[in-house]
């Protein structure tokens, strides 16, 4: 779903989407368990929240948003994503970012593969959760990594993997 009606995604829907992507669903003897599987529970993913209000980082442990800036970067992000309108017009973009270094110690050469697979799990949960909430979404993988890093203020250690664009579906 790439055409969005006007109107922001509510705070409670955003909380539910983030929980589905990376939230804490329980715990065991090794610590907290997340809603998406992670190789060796190395948890290399970060989710950045991009809206008209700015950028924030999801903190799974506290189920909190850490505000990172109050500039609307969706136009810059759309340019980074080969000028795709769905990125420009979505009221909410959830950027899935991988920090491969967290997984390298345990898995060496396979770390990059594992982190990419995990991004698929997180994005799929977002798509399913969005649909269950009556929202529409599209996963975007076509973008220039460095431009996305620049738009979101990411370090070179962070690899942008997916931009999940979410909003209320426009009437057909
Ligand atoms: C890895 C990957 C990258 C994608 N990148 C984009 C993209 O950059 N822009 C876009 O509009 N859709 C993108 N999509 C979405 C697909 O084009 C397609 O719309 C989606 O898989 C659902 O299609 P369907 O419901 O018509 O089968 C991507 C999908 C995947 C799996």
Characteristics:
alpha+beta, single chain, 35% helix, 172 residues, globular, two-stranded antiparallel sheet
Between the first and last Cα atoms, what is the distance in angstroms? Answer: 11 Å
Order of helices and strands: HEEEEEHHEHHEHE
How are strands sequenced across the largest beta sheet? 5-4-3-6-8-7
| Unreliable stretches | none
In words, what does this structure look like?
This protein has 172 residues and is of the alpha+beta class. The protein has 6 helices and 8 strands, in the order αβββββααβααβαβ. Helix 4 (101-107) packs across helix 5. The N and C termini lie close together (11 Å). The mean pLDDT is 97. Bound molecules: flavin mononucleotide. Residues 2, 84, 86, 138-142 line the site of flavin mononucleotide (FMN).
Layout of strands and helices, then pairs:
Layout: H1 11-22, E1 24-28, E2 31-34, E3 45-51, E4 54-59, E5 64-69, H2 74-80, H3 85-89, E6 92-98, H4 101-107, H5 111-132, E7 136-140, H6 145-152, E8 159-167
Antiparallel strand pairs: 1-2, 3-4, 3-6, 4-5, 6-8, 7-8
Helix pairs in contact: 1-5, 2-6, 4-5
Q: Brief description of this entry?
A:
This protein is an alpha+beta fold and 172 residues long. It has helices at 11-22, 74-80, 85-89, 101-107, 111-132, 145-152, and strands at residues 24-28, 31-34, 45-51, 54-59, 64-69, 92-98, 136-140, 159-167.
């Amino acid at each position: 779903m790439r055409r969005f009606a006007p109107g922001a995604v509510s705070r409670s829907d955003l909380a539910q989407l983030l929980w589905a992507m990376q939230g804490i669903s329980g715990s065991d003897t090794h610590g907290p368990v997340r809603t998406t599987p992670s190789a060796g529970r190395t948890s290399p993913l970060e989710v950045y929240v991009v809206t008209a209000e700015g950028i924030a980082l999801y903190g799974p442990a506290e189920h909190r948003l850490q505000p990172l800036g109050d500039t609307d970067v969706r136009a810059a992000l759309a340019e980074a994503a080969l000028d795709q309108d769905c990125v420009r017009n979505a009221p909410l973009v959830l950027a899935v970012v991988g920090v491969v270094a967290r997984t390298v110690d345990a898995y060496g050469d396979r770390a990059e593969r594992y982190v990419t697979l995990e991004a698929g799990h997180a994005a799929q949960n977002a798509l399913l959760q969005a649909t269950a909430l009556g929202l529409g979404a599209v996963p975007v993988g076509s973008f220039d990594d460095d431009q996305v890093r620049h738009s979101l203020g990411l370090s070179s250690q962070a690899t942008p993997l997916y931009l999940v664009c979410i909003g209320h579906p426009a009437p057909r």
